[in-house]
Design brief:
Strand order of the largest sheet: 1-2-3-4-5
Radius of gyration: 14 Å
Number of strands: 5
Mean pLDDT: 80
Largest sheet: 5 strands, antiparallel
Strand content: 15-25%
Shape: globular
Structural class: alpha+beta
Distance between the termini: 17 Å
């Protein structure tokens, strides 16, 4: 998979999200955004990326801080405490230290990686950016398109 194919896949996955960007703070609506609003195609795309064994996908994972994982290790996290930690880490990543982070979608992408996004942070092309964190919420990479 080339970088262009990766970008196209991420953009396509993002386009299929039913994104109503989070505009409320965590305290107003909970830390996790509803799983129903996250398209299956986005989850399937991440599964495809972390389970692929070809050298192109391995390079993409290495570039974006992702690790190889089993399909069963990719899922939407609905635990409010974990979502709150992820939301605060996401806001710190984008320069907001107010402590009033917006709710997030949190994907566990293998045993050691998390993908976090809330629909508010866009890259220069207007696509949603997500952040890859380790399980201690140390940023590994920012992904455009998912």
């Amino acid at each position: 998979m080339s970088r262009l194919q990766l970008l196209r896949g991420l953009i396509a996955a993002c386009a299929l999200l039913v994104v109503s960007p989070a505009t409320k703070t965590i305290s107003a609506q909970g830390a996790c955004l509803p799983q129903a609003a996250l398209a299956d195609v986005a989850i399937k795309y991440v599964i495809g990326l972390v389970t692929a064994t070809d050298s192109a996908n391995m390079r993409i994972r290495a570039t974006h801080g992702l690790e190889s994982a089993l399909a069963s290790e990719v899922y939407v996290v609905a635990d409010s405490a974990r979502c709150r930690n992820a939301a605060l880490a996401l806001e710190r990543t984008f320069g907001d230290s107010s402590g009033t982070a917006a709710p997030v979608w949190l994907l566990q992408a293998g045993p050691n990686r998390l993908l976090v996004f809330n629909g508010l942070h866009l890259d220069p092309y207007g696509t949603i950016s997500s952040v890859v964190f380790d399980t201690l919420y140390v940023r590994k990479a920012i992904l455009a398109g998912l």
